[in-house]
């Protein structure tokens, strides 16, 4: 019997007791590899005093497990009567009584067996199965064929052949072990059992697992309970390196090239998966293990030659090995398991904070929670009903379905390829968005270094899945239902924070429906304003993530910071002004917190998460913000998606903003009385004392949004010589959301102020009358908004916008950036404005770049000369500027048109519309008219952004693996 120990003092007493309980052990040789505790002394004492007989060999601390086994074999051979069988045991593996007898009995019954192993169960639980034989997959994964955490119920108690058995409790013929060359010294601690079993199977030897023999294994090295010089601090690296080495030194030669490619690609894929579950250290260990193995081809060749020599030059028994290896589909099943684990962790994380807060609330008010559990909800169906029956018999569920269908019907105009209002058409190909976002010099207008807006990246990602038109259409059609989902989720959590009972589902339905209608009733949806529409979808989710700042666990607060920062970044990509409101809100909250709890605010885990959430935004938007500031496009930080092409007077006035209307003073919005009722409900929510604190918080956020809007509106913005208003639509949405939340909390406080339930004290009549009036008013807002949105909603979105440029000109412009189209609008008396159309015209994202690009003074001079005194030299200048066609949309100034008709070098062209005039430039076009140099800094910024996004995703993701202890 061979016992190897190293710093195993905590397990050895039990192991030695297990050895003493065996009926026949024979001679015991203990090999201690430089233990710093009393391991060697414990073994010596047991061999000197108990029924066990043998000796202890002390080796150095650098002795590997294969060397320790070989030392023990040499000592057994020195006795002159080497045994036929050797039983190998670890110092953290205790055998059950009769384990050795079961192994020897199986060896006698199956004389063809050369290696036998026991059933391994977890120590100290004693019931969970660890291994009944082991094999290896094509990706190097150690496979046991067991479910995670599977208990031993005798379901695997058949004796069978396996590829390998664990060295903890392995019974092996001494002669066979010597013929195979012993354990491979290149595997100092992990993987030597698999390698030995593979070599034995390749040599035609048989390995059996004997479930009747049970050994309890603590797996101290694998679980990190014991650190040695061989494991170091990177146990995963050692395990992964052993697996890759085992595959490459034992696999058939013809499969090696394909196996190397598979392992490289598989390692990269594993790294991505490990990073996503916040196991960055293990991902780096995987990479280091791969590089360590493939960077030593000489060592691999020598090991393969040694295996061939151990078989006497005979070919390996590949049929036996293949039969005992894991099936090819096992790695794919593990991949699905990882995806399932991640999805489960994300789902659990979403409700974890609310669950723990409900538990904390129950601890403070157990009677209310008990009553909640005792009384069935009014919208709950019997437990034995089917899903469809529950749906049809639950009023809230039925109304939710009706609301969602109504919202989809209200957004029906957004189906298909739409544009109009302030919304430009989507490009034909998603590649246009990707090239727009990646380019440092954009061939738009006369060429510009102004970067693409940040929202182009999420649109490109969505457009890759749905096409560009599908991406824009899905945002418009699904905006209201998604806003309903997010607001319901937020209001439910906020209600539970305010009261143990939580908000009534009727209040949740009214509040979430009102908020979901905000993009429609405000007029933002009808004008195609993607900024407020997307902000309405994302703001509830962002607010829900920010609630994690109040979590008692610091680690969860930091994780909430990364989630909040990521969501806030998405909001700011479409509506950058939101970041300034968040910054002001952070300062206000910090000041209030410092006044109320100065000691708590000093802790880094208290002020750090909100600061991180705010700091994440400029880092993730660096490829847009930095070039925007450098190239004079700072005005883009105060605009929103779609706003640059708007008319100057699109900002809502003060009253319109208070009533939740944007664009043209809310001309496309719902009737003003809906906004008045919601504002009154928000103010009335301050009356109930029970929920006043939460309502005051809502009004604080609303005040910050109003102040930010007031300050931003004072900033003068001029784009292309025209004064424009800042994009305040997202702030109006935030204002409306605060009013909705305050109204729901106020309604909840009114209900909590006195109960209407049977058997409890009745409310005073004035209170009941007030509650009834508030209920009628609260229901009037979502009902009125829904009726207006479905039946009378106005919009400027159209399927195919009418353009001033004929189709054949656009087709020519699509052949190259030098085939530009110059559009000159207006008259000499009222003023003329020009634009240059290239490719298929300005699409979503390009319109903002064109609006922020600085004026080309040279082209402006050419246009002035063209409309006043055109000459052949001016026409040649147009060709050099990359202009092929000149178009004067109706109404046309007759004097300008007659002058162009008489100019040499211009030929009249078909304009389609009789009231529109067009000419073609009959000069050679300059192919480099709008070309520019691509700066090296743009790729660097994109790489930094990609790494930052990956880091934030990892830090925001839930952890699906417990830390090893």
TrEMBL record:
<protein>
    <submittedName>
        <fullName>N-acetylglucosaminyl-diphospho-decaprenol L-rhamnosyltransferase</fullName>
        <ecNumber>2.4.1.289</ecNumber>
    </submittedName>
</protein>
<feature type="transmembrane region" description="Helical">
    <location>
        <begin position="665"/>
        <end position="686"/>
    </location>
</feature>
<feature type="transmembrane region" description="Helical">
    <location>
        <begin position="387"/>
        <end position="410"/>
    </location>
</feature>
<feature type="transmembrane region" description="Helical">
    <location>
        <begin position="936"/>
        <end position="957"/>
    </location>
</feature>
<feature type="transmembrane region" description="Helical">
    <location>
        <begin position="693"/>
        <end position="717"/>
    </location>
</feature>
<feature type="transmembrane region" description="Helical">
    <location>
        <begin position="454"/>
        <end position="485"/>
    </location>
</feature>
<feature type="transmembrane region" description="Helical">
    <location>
        <begin position="260"/>
        <end position="281"/>
    </location>
</feature>
<keyword id="KW-0808">Transferase</keyword>
<keyword id="KW-0472">Membrane</keyword>
<dbReference type="InterPro" id="IPR050834">
    <property type="entry name" value="Glycosyltransf_2"/>
</dbReference>
<feature type="transmembrane region" description="Helical">
    <location>
        <begin position="608"/>
        <end position="626"/>
    </location>
</feature>
<dbReference type="Pfam" id="PF13641">
    <property type="entry name" value="Glyco_tranf_2_3"/>
</dbReference>
<feature type="region of interest" description="Disordered">
    <location>
        <begin position="357"/>
        <end position="380"/>
    </location>
</feature>
<feature type="transmembrane region" description="Helical">
    <location>
        <begin position="723"/>
        <end position="746"/>
    </location>
</feature>
<keyword id="KW-1133">Transmembrane helix</keyword>
<feature type="transmembrane region" description="Helical">
    <location>
        <begin position="583"/>
        <end position="601"/>
    </location>
</feature>
<feature type="transmembrane region" description="Helical">
    <location>
        <begin position="767"/>
        <end position="791"/>
    </location>
</feature>
<keyword id="KW-0812">Transmembrane</keyword>
<keyword id="KW-0328">Glycosyltransferase</keyword>
<feature type="transmembrane region" description="Helical">
    <location>
        <begin position="506"/>
        <end position="525"/>
    </location>
</feature>
<dbReference type="GO" id="GO:0102096">
    <property type="term" value="F:decaprenyl-N-acetyl-alpha-D-glucosaminyl-pyrophosphate:dTDP-alpha-L-rhamnose rhamnosyltransferase activity"/>
</dbReference>
